[in-house]
Design goal:
Elements lengths: L2 E9 L2 E7 L2 H22 L9 H13 L1 H8 L13 H5 L7 E10 L5
Antiparallel strand pairs: 1-2, 1-3
Helix pairs in contact: 1-2
Length: 115
């Protein structure tokens, strides 16, 4: 029998439908969602004279958070090194930036007899 540990990110009591085999990856994803949440609040509070719905702001925030190093280079006046990372559709639909973090919880799954 094998025991496999999977890490998931839980935000506001809801599991994000991504599993990570490595805790460090789950923590990095959680940190990205925190950054996206902060960006969304910043954009919503900016008083822009354009009409953006919440889903659009969330999608832009997640995109910017996923591409943080390149965005930082651009803001410093440097050219980006890599093309922007594509955000999967599941992450775009997720309202994660509007919720708070509860951090990761390990979930163990066991396979039936495998020897």
């Amino acid at each position: 029998m094998a025991v496999i540990t999977k890490y998931v990110v839980v935000r506001n009591g809801v599991e994000i439908d991504k599993e990570f085999p490595i805790k460090k990856d789950a923590e990095a994803y959680d940190k990205m969602l925190d950054a996206a949440e902060n960006l969304a609040v910043y954009i919503k509070d900016a008083g822009l004279e354009i009409d953006l719905d919440g889903r659009t702001i969330d999608a832009i925030s997640i995109f910017l958070a996923n591409n943080g190093p390149e965005v930082t280079r651009i803001l410093k006046g440097l050219k980006p090194v890599a093309p922007p990372a594509h955000t999967p559709e599941k992450e775009k639909k997720n309202d994660a930036p509007a919720v708070t973090a509860k951090k990761k919880t390990p979930a163990a799954k066991a396979k039936p007899k495998g020897k």
